[in-house]
Design brief:
Elements (H helix, E strand, L loop, with lengths): L4 E5 L6 E5 L12 E13 L10 H15 L2 E5 L5 E6 L3 E6 L2 E6 L3 E4 L6 H16 L10 E9 L2 E8 L3
Parallel strand pairs: 2-4, 4-8
Antiparallel strand pairs: 1-3, 2-3, 3-9, 5-6, 6-7, 9-10
Helix pairs in contact: 1-2
């Protein structure tokens, strides 16, 4: 039976504090509120040899980049059917979400190409950004899979797993 290794990274320093509004299918939504999101990644691979070693520092730097981008920002799902952008400038963004009008400073907003700001969607979006950042790290030895877990509070969150077909 082949061996399977798993690298797990979860550090307090890699958290990000963001605000959001979850939208429901009936067009209602939560009020704007925030969380201290805690990401965890699990990378599974077969080869743990010296030649194919994956430095933890590379994984953490990829995670740190996302934390820097999303920390202290309002996350907005621009593919949500109840989202409509009204205007955007260097200084502010104006939009409607579920019939309510919002005007926020542009530098405090991250527009995400997702349908909803939920832990499930954030986990997938986080995976996409992280895997793009780690492409050079995994070039020689791609992992079997990578899982991203996003917790919005201790013990409450969701994960996304991508399995490679190699």
């Amino acid at each position: 039976m082949p061996h399977l290794y798993e690298v797990r990274i979860r550090k307090e320093a890699l958290k990000f504090a963001s605000s959001h509004m979850t939208v429901f299918p009936d067009g209602s939504k939560e009020a704007l509120h925030g969380h201290q999101y805690q990401p965890t990644i699990l990378v599974r691979f077969r080869d743990a040899s010296f030649e194919n070693m994956i430095p933890f520092s590379e994984l953490k730097e990829g995670m740190r980049g996302i934390a820097r981008e999303w920390d202290e920002k309002t996350l907005i799902a621009v593919k949500n059917p109840f989202y409509r952008e009204i205007s955007r400038s260097e200084s502010e963004i104006e939009f409607r979400l579920c019939g309510k009008r919002y005007v926020l400073p542009s530098d405090e907003v991250v527009l995400l190409e997702i349908t909803n700001v939920t832990c499930e969607e954030l986990a997938r979006c986080y995976f996409e950004r992280l895997s793009a950042a780690l492409r050079p790290v995994f070039a020689a030895c791609p992992p079997l899979s990578m899982t991203v877990l996003i917790e919005e509070s201790p013990g409450q969150g969701a994960s996304y797993t991508h399995e490679n077909n190699c």
